[in-house]
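Request: Mind sharing a record?
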Amino acid sequence: MAAQHAIFFCTYCFEVQPSFNKTTPRTYYACYFRYLFALPQKGTTTQSLPLPSLTMTLPKRQAAAQASHPPTQPPTHIAAQPDTFFAFLRHPDRRPDLLLLVAIHLLAFLFVAYTYPSPYTNADTGSYLACSVSGKIDGYRPIGYSWFLSAFRAISASTFFVFAAQFWLHALANSFFLLTLQYFVRPVRRILFGAAAILLLISPATLFLTNALLSDSIFSTLSLVWLTSGIWLWRRFSLPMLLLHLLVMYWAVNVRYAGLFYPVFSALLLALQNGKQRYYLPVLPLLIGVYIYVATKAEMRQRFGVDTFSAFSGWAQANNATAVIPYIDLQPDAIASEALRNIHQQVLSEPKEMYNTHNVMGTMFIWGKERAGKKALFDYWQKNQGSDYTRAWVRVGMQMGNYAQLLRQHYPWLYVRHFILPNAANIIVPRYDFLSYRNVAQTDEIVQQLYGDRSFEARHDWIATYIATLCRPANVLLWLLCAAAIGTVASRYKQYAPTLPHAAPIAAYLLLFIGIYAIFSAIAHPFYLRYALPLHAPQIALLYLAAQYLYKIKAVK
């Protein structure tokens, strides 16, 4: 081996480097180090390399020696990457991409701020604001978004600041997600990155809900950071990224209970790690999920004297289960529980046609003032004069959950047919619960008390004028494009997968999230357009990764 290295070195010095001066030690060492870098990568030997023939002419010997020792470079299908993400961001090649992200977000921010100078609110807003003042859960919704409202108000008591904070937090999440994709799957064309950035931002829900006093924007932001940190944990594990992943997961679950499956998803992700850490790391997100559940139940028990995690869950389940009412003949006398029998009597007091798909998906059972849900609530409230309205809501919510369980157990296939399947269709063709810029009078009052805002008018309601009619067809088109992209890549996956080694695992990770989120949403609650916001970024990412494959295929051909 030593003899072969000596022969190669001599050949390299005298034939590949004809200007080598053997009498100068400095030149000798410089040439020797150049020779070392010209050797094959670790794991190979010089035995497989042909020696240049000393009988060749000098030009031929130089060409043969260079062919025997090609410079160490990354394969053409894998772009060279800096060791760290921050070094990647500081690279001069990233400047156009960073400038593009800043420009797109800045223009969008100025446009929304001008056209909608005050935030969108609805009946939910009052609950979030009241909890942000009291710091206590109110029995209607999770308290996590109220934490953020309280933190924002501690910095500035302005609704414009709430919008600015929500918008730029979401902008940072978008940028973190896109640049992470670019780091692991370098684009063959810069236009692909630009197209993904624009598509990710121009979602009407993204633009509109960042200027709304609702939890959807913050939940989407946290979900996106959680997803992105998951990519890093899978592809390049680090302790800081694990801490970020667990922290945003904790916040996301507390902001909206649609994230209740996040701890299980994170545990599955951490179980795929290499080494012994896969045996104990999955316990961490599960412990956080258990802590959220136990702590929330303890607070609900302390405030309302009931052992429940979410009273709203019971109301939502009952609303969903009433989809079977037009197709069954269940008499109240057949129900043993008096409380459930009373609820069923209220349900049957209305025509069965009132429980059609439209009304069920519109949650009229919960919020309709003259509907059976409100009648059952007022009936309980009158019988228990010592209970305030919120306490009555919570206690009746527990009864509603039991009533929903009764209907699901007796009529499981009807429940699947008349609620699960129509609600799953809503994920593809979603309902939209905001068509124009509007506010609720009782919400306006608390907003004015906390922020001092008096004007609640839009300069130009472009959501209602231009966007509302495009929301559903655009969502359908996005799903169709994702399906077509996945099918196209899958049909050629074995042939071209080596060209983008990180793309397939990341795509599988995002597909798994989309599938679980869709299933969980179809079961839990009627699906609206604003609930689809956490799905938007993974869908755009799938299109981006598929486009990478297609460009590589075209280049190979």
